[in-house]
User: Fold these one by one.
Assistant:
Number 1:
Amino acid sequence: MGDAVEPAEGGVVIDFLGEVAGWFADPANWTGNRGVPNLLLAHVSLSAVAVAAAALISLPSAIYLGHVRRGGFLAVSLVNIGRALPSFGIVGVMYPVTLAFALTRSPLGYWATLIAMILLAMPPMFVNAYTAIRDVDPALTEAARGMGMREGQVVRRLELPLGLPLIMAGIRSAAVAVVATVTLGAWVGYGTLGTYIFVGFAQGDEVLIFAGGLLVAMLAVVTELGLGWVERRTDQTHHGRRRQGARPLAISDEVVATRP
Amino acid sequence: MGEAMIRLEAVTKQYDGTTSPAVAGLTLDVPEGEIAVLVGPSGCGKTTTLKMINRLIEPTAGHIVVAGRRVGDMEAHELRRGIGYVIQQIGLFPHRTIAENIATVPKLLGWPRARIEERVDELIEVVHLEAELRDRYPAELSGGQRQRVGVARALAADPPVMLMDEPFGAVDPIIRSALQGQFLELQREVNKTVVLVTHDIDEAIRLGDKVAILNVGGVLEQYGPPADVLREPANEFVAEFLGRDRGLKRLGLIPIHAVDLEPGPSLAPAATPEEARQVMARHGVDWIAVVDGTRLLGWAPDTALVGAATLGDVALRPFRTVISHDASLKEALDAVISSRSLAAAVLDGDVFLGMLTAETIGREIVQ
Amino acid sequence: MTIDWGWIADHVDDMWSTTVEHLILTVIAVTVGLVLSLVLAIVALRWRRSYAPITWVTGVLYTIPSLALFTFLVPVFGLSLLTAEVALVSYTLLILIRNIVAGVNGVPAHVIEASRGMGMTDRRIFLGVQLPLALPAIIAGVRIAAVTTIGLVTLTVLVGQGGYGVFILRGIRRQFLTEALVGTVLSVLMAVAVDVVLIVVEQWATPWSRRRAAS
């Protein structure tokens, strides 16, 4: 795993942080292939594509199944399996697999990372969307049908708007997980913010490692807060979900809820 | 008659930020071995008062004395282990068996194992629970069964005092009536000093040796035996609360066997129609009942007597409105007014004891 | 692109020792996480106002990717077990604390009232009534924490630890599918096995939850 990295000693902490600040201040780190903007863009774009693809695949079926109230077991199993899959392993496995089907026009490791991320993003999105639609008060859907709404309209006009916050929570949870894990793309040759960490470990450069970690952490937190803001805006009942105390960094309920 | 087992002296409870107290200066004695029922509209502080006795709520002012000791001077946990506490939703531990639930306080008090087991079995019998339920969990029992476990649990350490907050509230009316009856029977055996809270005036009247009518803010409007309160309500509020059928409620307290019964318009089968007509005229009715010794054979209208030599020759109709002698006058009145003859026959098993009419019943109220 | 079964047969011993490493890393993380979470949960239950800040901090720790946490810890603790464990434990805190608090709060109020009315002390009530009744929620949290930790332990190879991540990293380096696949599959198997064990533990620990009233 490259050269040994020595732990810093106590009094050197301030100096170290100074070096990190210096790294950020250095304009060279903001230009070119290995510059922050470039890697950031690669990182975010892959994440966005993965989340969008996962949403496209999982949301329609989840909404349908939630509406007809079937397949609960599937949802729970999906999330249990999804949780059991190590993201590092999925990326690692996808890499040789995608090499075998080399799509030469894309950057090395792009497809491995993308497929792994789609697999990672699907379970939380699926289970949240399923639960969101299924848990709409049956009295409301009955009233809607009684008013003459067709099934499609019930979904579009009633269940989707009401379920939107929870669906968004699932998307948010998935997005944060993806943004965190895309970092690993650097290990299979696709340049992301993880490149700093990967190269840093290889060269024994602590400052680089730390800077890379800081960038990834900030991106994750920004994603969480940003999508959290969007999620709150989608809550049309204006009730919010009351929990004991405030939840500025809300984690989706699927994390707590699933049991077979 | 005992002296006061529980004494409330000017007990007051005022919550922060409220303008008027929940309970204001309540003074009240509960003699040993009696059931005192606190009843009143919501907001009258009855539950608050109850909870101040075992200090689940602390009074703002005043004292409460139980068995000669001020509750404020005792350690709260120690106090509560000496008082049985039954609440409406019962609060059985879902994760403990029935036997373990009942054994809770004895275990807290450190009783030896053997004694606890014995006591648990004893109590299960006393509250009429099936012995096989001993090792089941509360989720497996019905509402009525759970309620009885709650009572058993409260009695486990044989506390002299019991506090009950709407103990029969969570079951349906039929079971509730049965449970109330069982409780009265139980009390005859164990003779606890009980303070019971209810919003149901009928329950209060049925169960209480003394009834305390509370008004909003814990104001004690009247306190006394139910018969007295019903007969002479202290004021407008109490009269209203007791309800317009106050008189009927009083009748509910008077058992038939306490009343002198008259034979009513009845004769032996050997009597003649002539004698029958005299009796009918004297009672002002148009029918006659036929009684052979102590057996009520039936009745006949005067039109059916024409041409018969004795009453025994007449085709008799069965006497429908009969009532047992251990029912209350209220039930008797109910029977009377639903009969054509406006009279009810009182029986003890097969033995005819006498008759009651609306008039004879009414005389009881006036006394 | 096929699986090299020969390689698998040759490396069974390797897989056993790696399994032990992986398991130890997991057990340490979940155990420490549970103990810490219990302490923090008790604090949160006792002082209601502290729940929000506690959730906030553990939420941040949850959001920050483990890799990033590694990078913050490496300059301080080096490529060590401590680095790995601190990061792993941080990830479990939020889920465990939330589940413990939710479980304890979920105990019906009338059961608590009856307990107090009978003269049980607060400590007795917490240990004898609230915790046992909160067990299903707590174990649900431990299951989630354990399964996610098992997946994350694969990353600890990057900070010098063992575990299935070793196979995955080597598989990536040599572009050897079999090895990477073995690492992944073993991780999934361990996660499933641990999940099942915890389900059984829950059933055993809560005999009252399955009985229902006879009709």
Number 2:
Amino acid sequence: MSPDILAQYFVSGLMLAMIYSLVAVGFTLFFGVLDIIHFAHGDVFMVGAFVALTSFIGLTLAGVNIVALQLVLMIVVTIAALALLGILTARLLVLPMKGAPALNVLLMTMMLGTILRESVRLFYPEGANPKAFPHLLPTASVSLGNIMVRIDNIIMLAIGAATIVGVSLLINRTKLGLAIRAVAQDEETAKTMGINYTLIVLVTFGLGSALAAVAGVISGLYYNEINFSMGLMLGAIGFSAAITGGLGSIYGAILGGILFAVLQIIGAVAMPFASAYKDVFAFAVVIVIMTWRPTGLISTLSSERV
Amino acid sequence: MRAPPEEPPARKSVFFGVGGLLAAMLYLALVLRVDSQSAILGLLAIGATGVFIAARLDLISAFRQSYRDNERVMDVLSIVAVLILAAGFHNSSFILFLLTTVLINIIACLGLNLQFGYAGMLNFAGAAMLGVGGYTAALLGQNAAIPPILLLPLGGLFAAVIGSILLPPMLRTQGHYSAVVTIAFNLLFTTFLEVYGGFGGTQGLPVQSMSLLGLDFNDDWKINGFEVAFYANYFVLGLMLTVIVAAVVRRMERSWIGLSLDAVRLDETSARCFGVNIALWKAVAFMSGNFIIGLAGTFYALMLGYIAPTNFTFGDSLILVTIIILGGLGSIWGVILTAAIVIILPEKLQAIQEYRFLLYAIVVTFVLLFQPGGLLPRAPRIFFPGWRP
């Protein structure tokens, strides 16, 4: 196999890992503060891609023609819109169900996912068809040593990596992050220490959804096509990644995302005759990992065994 | 210690039970008969108002109490009522098909209830188990001379065996972690069927029709000018299967099997301390549940005559889970009621077909917010005859 092709696999693997990790970190954040699985998260990601497309069209109509400005504004608008969506979800749907069986909350978020997906399909102009996403980044290639890498891929990887590093700094180094970790560890004690629980939950949902927004923009720019059902599979993969890494752990989620991408790429490279089986392979490995480490690779929960 | 003096037996009236059953059947018949969309919307509004008023007047609890007090009578009456309802639609293929689909979903959800409602094992691979049953019917039916009626238990058996691959991870993981195992399995299952050419790929496979004692189930009947659509055959067999499965599940629930499963769900640690073998009971619940779901899948395939991976997606698993949560976990009548609503309503609301999934998701959201125990929550276990909670 030529180094060029290997490099291509490597870059696309990195890109997948980035997108999966961004989504998985959202799952793990929500689970941390509220002990729930926000199953609509994949569809929130899809909404992000559509908001980005809409804001791009809006910006073009408004006469903003500088590509860099378009890109920055698009990302800002998408992040703001999705953070708002996340906050509303927490306020209107998730917090009122506090104390309900975990299963009901899971079902509720699945229904929210259906509502988002169907709303885009029905109410977005021709939402049922795949939409072309604009090329906003330069597509020329640069040579690194003896392999060629496209500039747009490098920029996207940089944006994604910066976001992940930023979030982990936010969680681990700031006072807000301390409050989030405190709520995740013990809600009651956090409250007695004067932490505004509701506010932290809302902020966490805003933050997690903003990550999905970044993932949505990157995915749109990378594949140049978005459609209303793209969130379903990605939600399942992000959830699997978060679980495989160990729910509640940020690094676990990132590790899970990378692992899933690596599995898919290995599935595609090692079995070129059966590259269609890459998802089968990835999910089978997830089942095996769950058998081996029942609470994920990096487990934050003490297990209760008899 | 002497037993307390017997209280005079409470009046066990069948009045409310029969009245409620009649009202429900009449309403269902009307919904099935009416085709005009505005009429259906009107009926839905009337139904919602009726249920609301009945709930305010305490009629619903009287209805449920009457059902509980006169169980045998009401069970038989319900079966008769459903048969009469179906007889009323004897020449309408579509309605009979719809009713049989409801029955199949009831069977599958009863199996899922064993795992979910009693043993507390999350299973989001219900559709995959349906699929195992369906593909068993298609493949064995093509390649071997097996009488179709034998395919039903075989489909169940294959589902139980293939499902037992998931047992090691299911026994080791809990809660959300076991959810991901089953979600991964369902995605793996449909993806595998789509990419593996041997089972028809995305195109799917034809399935032979059901036949029993020389009677081909795909033949219409005609007796003295009285025409019966062939789906009536499937409906009758489906009803028989539903009754058998419901009886078995109810017997299991009320025996020490159900007691052990409840203990496993409610508190694994203390169940273990009292000598309940957790792994054994989880395995029993998981495999018998998968057997029942596989049986339903085989029957579904035999009725459809054609199956494809799109019949068994993760979304279909979600519908099964929705049915049992909306019905009330562990509640057999709840499953029957919600399966009817979830399957029939979207089919009848064709005019707003585009919006039906959206509306359906919104309705479920509201039920979860305002009636979190489900529509017919499971009744408390009756430990002694005549005991009232």
Number 3:
Amino acid sequence: MTPNQNRRRLSLMFFAAVILSSFVWAFSARGEGGEPRYFAIVNARIVPVSAPPIEKGTVVIARGLIQAVGTNVPIPPEAWVIDGTGLTVYPGLIDAGTDLGFPKPDAADESAGAAKPPAPPREYAMGPEDRPATTPWRVAADELKITDKRIPVWRSAGFTTVLTAPDSGIFPGQASLIDLAGDRVGDLVVKPTAALPVTLKGLGGFFSFPGSLMGTIAYVRQVFDDTEWYAQAEPIYEANVGKSERLRYDRTERVIELSLRNNEVVLLSANNSIEILRALHLAEEWKIKAAIQGAQQSYAVAGAIAARKIPVLVNLKWPERAKDADPEAEVTLRELRFRDRAPSSPVSLEKAGARFAFYSGGLPAPKDIFKNVRKAVSAGLTPEAALRAFTVDAAAILSVDDRLGSIEPGKIANVVVADGDIFGEKTKVKHVFVDGRWFEIHEEAPPETPTAKNPAAPAVLTDSEPEVGR
Amino acid sequence: MRRASIFAILLASFTGALGAFAQTPQPVFIQNATILTVTHGNIEHGSILVRDGKIAAVGTNLKAPDGATLIDATGQFIVPGIIDCHSHIAIDGNVNEGAPAVSSMVKISDVLNPEDKHMYIDLAGGVTTANILHGSANPIGGQTVVIKLRWGKLPSALPFEGALPGIKFALGENPKHSNFGPPPGMPQRYPATRLGVEEVIRQAFTEAREYKKTWDDYDRRRTSGERDLIPPRRDEKLEPLVEVLEGRRYVHAHCYRADEILMLIRVANEFGFKVRTFQHVLEGYKVADEIAASGAGGSTFSDWWAYKMEAYDAIPYNAALMQERGVVTSINSDNPDEARHLNQEAAKTMKYGGVSPNDALKLITLNPAIQLGIENRVGSIDVGKDADLVFYNHDPLSVYAVVQKTLIDGEVYFDRATDLARRPELEKEKQSLLDKEKKAGEEEKGEEKAEKKSEKKSEKKPDKHKPPESGDSVEIIERGVR
């Protein structure tokens, strides 16, 4: 046996032992009644968001829900008690726009020679009837991968819930609202069809419809026309079979008709002031329940947004000078002003009285999210409004404020416990509850082995693993 | 390089003021000007009174009312705002929706951008109204819109109130994709010949007629009390063509050759609609009588040709000859550079064709106004018309003429002196923003270094564990319940 094989055998044996021991552990835990389902965080400062903060109070979590909040609440005898002295309890944060669960292929996988699926040949569309870049029937929840390594990273930073959606297209598919804990995809999904994103951009090119921005808008308009027509025509046809020719099957109009009937929020992409005004106008024309997604120049049009009462999802990936920008390249004053003022969009929206939520929009890590929120706060946004944007207001925009977004009895037990202000530079998150499941956060050495509780750790041991021989 | 930075500054002078439009402005009183009215001669030492954005009085013996804003125009020439009957400014995204042979579903009005720098550059050339057209990739192109160059106002404030909407048609080489082809693997789009272009237009209007009939039938049956009728589908492509058939939308047809011009006149007659303008129309002089008889206008270039096969038979006398034969003629830009000196383009007809100065001026003012059906509002300096006025330091038909001020609805949208005065201030703002970014970038670098240092320290510890492979550099573990 070569040393290499020997090592592999050892590591396999070790892996088996780990699996076995975790079973034993799980069984023993189950013998005592399984995972605890009751918790009480006591002596903590509580920020329910929907109500004024409680300086020294208790939050009781029971069977996945928040059972009680207050200064003088009974603690169930079976509850695990967490001493919250010096800690602050917040509702779990909501990131209202990610692609969590849709990991990009690893650089490591590629270098290992993993076969890349060949790019599908581009399909040329000649008009709206070809339904270009349109897959509204795709639902993020049906496709997401629980193994995305960013899920535990986001959770450990205090994000318990995210809106996630597959990649681009005009109608890329429906965004799902997911909680960031669970053993199966089904455990995560709070609302599979939470939002219908619409990307108002030209697809480019000259030979396939739509190449231009105006083509995309005309296309979306035709789709909403068709959807409205289907909603009218289908009941008439069904009630009068035999009187008119059968309706042609069109998946797009049927799916979107259902989304609109379910009052799903339509996310219209719009970042600069002109795009935002355009989206506001189109939302009115199309008579849809819309939200603006992007909105980084809303500082210029906050009044118009507030007047239309259309909510906004603000992309926290503030525009900035590209890291590898050509130092000789001419930058317009307009661009410089945009970069300078974008972080003042949230305070403008707050002052105008518009409802808004935040999303990470491709920021690589939670620390960048918090850093960019701090930029918005230094531009004048009140910390209270920043917190609402991550909690109650995000929940309201996505129509889940009856179950998420605040610490109130009956709400889903998504809770973050931190050792200070949640947006503070030095603040550490200590505990995270997702659907009442407890995660204790330690900022110390990483786990030695993969466990069921830590899907982020590599599932397969390799020769290079340091565990060998231990 | 220098030019680029001046552009950047020009651009920056857009203030971002997208606030509410139209506070009722003070009356404006302009005095001591040479006024070129276009309709009733030139007035030396004249005055113009502007009230509520309209021309309230024009003449020599006027007095400024109390409270009016005074503008002294001594030594200056005032002409009506220039109207560009063929422009592609103020559009977000591609000007062409090129794939379908009929792209009438797309609307320029959906993508207007009042921050486009070309609007400002056009204003600096005295343009106040423009016909914004879709490109020429399709026999039937997108829906067009007439705008006033109200730069920096809301997108909804751009369209010329009450102007009939239009649609772009295109004949010849562009719609048949003669001078470029599809990428490999993609078949050539139909049509590929001039015959095909005609057929596409004919087919589209046949469909539009049918579409209208379907809706008319449905409406009739429904109003006569029939129930449980499935309504027809709306078709965004055919609806504007129905509007053309009903005379509610103007056709602006890009064309070059005499034969295709006659073809479109025949097709239009057959389907019972009118072509409002032939655009470019470089061979218009060959068929000027036929164009005049059809009631169409001609909007052409002064002396720009031979850039492709179908543009070889052009002559600089085209505008003058069409005008002479009774075609309402204008000179357009099709290009934001050209739009900066439409006054000179018009003046060329005095050399090529002996057009009178006043008729030359008409080519960029009253005539395009007539072509766009807005001559009751703009195109001349007459009482009751919009106060869209351009101030030149010389006779506008002279090569020395430079625009000093451009007013739309009595409001100043370009002022050369103000613009020049603002430049140092804007340059300063730009530098301070650049410095601010630089400083922030350096601070961030410093922070990253400090972070790396602390990471290195922790690496020195005996434990050899790798951090988890996540996007986050903070080492985190989570422990489930024990």
